[in-house]
Specification:
Blueprint (H helix, E strand, L loop, with lengths): L7 H11 L5 H16 L4 E10 L6 H8 L5 E6 L4 H14 L10 H4 L7 E9 L3 E3 L7 E6 L4 E18 L4 E7 L6 E8 L5 H7 L4 H8 L1 E10 L1 E8 H6 L5 H4 L3 E4 L2 E3 L3 E10 L3 E3 L10 E4 L4 E7 L5 E7 L10
Parallel strand pairs: 1-2, 3-13, 4-14, 9-15
Antiparallel strand pairs: 1-3, 5-6, 6-7, 6-9, 7-8, 8-16, 10-13, 11-12, 16-17
């Protein structure tokens, strides 16, 4: 979105890192198409909000851009000096979208000694079921070896015909569990061998790994044990872009958002949500034969949510640190 209203320095950064077209007029069309492709099944929800200083009028071109943006952007003029009311406005908006995210930000996320002008918030929720569900009667409390402690979790258990492989070089097991067919999404879990550090595996994964992994997965009867979890991951996009040397949008006053001058994007938070529980679109049929392999995720693992038709990645993260539910946000 901000690509269209950026000056040359930021434009070049964004185009290089995000692989955007040099013709700005086509980037919005491409973004609309991407949004439609990702959300066409109804399983993936994408919501966007921009907060701007209530004392400054917006630039007319920026207003036109928002009017034609997909997904629709909620614009909220706020008093950035009041961090409590600003956080309340953001969280009230996301709760009204009914996407399972209750609190996208805290007062601390919007508090600043400096004067803020523009903040952006993005919420992505995958709301679907497994294609074949887990039997809740088989769910048991079992130990999970988190990086910071050993803690009992609700471990789901099922035997499925699933695509699986063992990567000898990376020393990890990989299983693909499909969500319900209509969603067009599946979950890839990458589980390092016991004693193998997840961080070392992540650092060693080559850029093309997820694409080449598809050819290695073959169908097996897999005895699967994975924890019942809700993934609620809040990310500062500035931190992500800084690792790619693309922080100009947060540092240079080069965005034509307001009528009275140019500004930078002060902060940008993204919150991703999806749930791994027993619910399935269908009941898992009785096993016709013994499982060929076991997949017991009782230690840190990497998860990847992908589109089934083209393997495009929409979420990626890890389950490795125990967080008390009362302290998650």
């Amino acid at each position: 979105m901000f690509y269209q209203v950026s000056g040359t320095p930021i434009e070049e950064d964004l185009r290089t890192v995000l692989h955007l077209p040099s013709d700005k007029s086509t980037s919005n069309t491409q973004q609309v198409q991407l949004h439609d492709d990702l959300t066409s099944s109804g399983a993936l929800k994408i919501h966007t909000m921009i907060c701007t200083s209530e004392t400054r009028p917006l630039d007319a071109c920026f207003q036109d851009l928002l009017a034609n943006h997909a997904p629709a952007v909620v614009l909220e003029p706020v008093d950035f000096t009041d961090d409590v009311s600003t956080a309340r406005a953001v969280n009230g908006w996301i709760q009204s979208e009914r996407c399972e995210i209750d609190d996208l930000v805290t007062e601390g996320d919007v508090w600043s000694l400096e004067t803020l002008s523009v903040m952006m918030f993005n919420a992505v929720s995958l709301m679907t079921k497994w294609r074949l569900g887990f039997d809740p009667r088989l769910t048991e409390q079992k130990e999970f070896k988190f990086l910071n402690k050993v803690q009992k979790v609700s471990m789901m258990h099922g035997i499925f015909k699933a695509r699986y492989c063992y990567d000898l070089q990376m020393r990890c097991k990989v299983v693909e569990l499909p969500f319900e067919h209509s969603s067009n999404y599946n979950l890839l879990i990458i589980l390092p061998d016991d004693g193998q550090c997840l961080a070392d595996v992540v650092d060693a994964i080559p850029e093309e790994y997820l694409n080449t992994m598809i050819d290695c997965l073959t169908e097996h009867w897999v005895d699967v044990q994975i924890p019942r979890i809700t993934v609620a991951m809040k990310t500062s996009v500035e931190d992500v872009l800084s690792k790619q040397d693309c922080t100009g949008i947060f540092e240079l006053k080069d965005l034509k958002v307001f009528a009275d001058g140019k500004d930078q994007l002060d902060r940008f938070y993204q919150h991703c949500w999806f749930r791994m529980d027993e619910n399935g679109a269908q009941l898992n049929a009785p096993l016709p034969e013994s499982p060929q392999v076991t997949f017991t995720a009782d230690r840190p693992f990497l998860y990847v949510v992908r589109r089934a038709n083209d393997s495009a990645v929409v979420m990626i993260g890890d389950y490795s640190i125990y967080v008390d539910p009362d302290e998650q946000y």
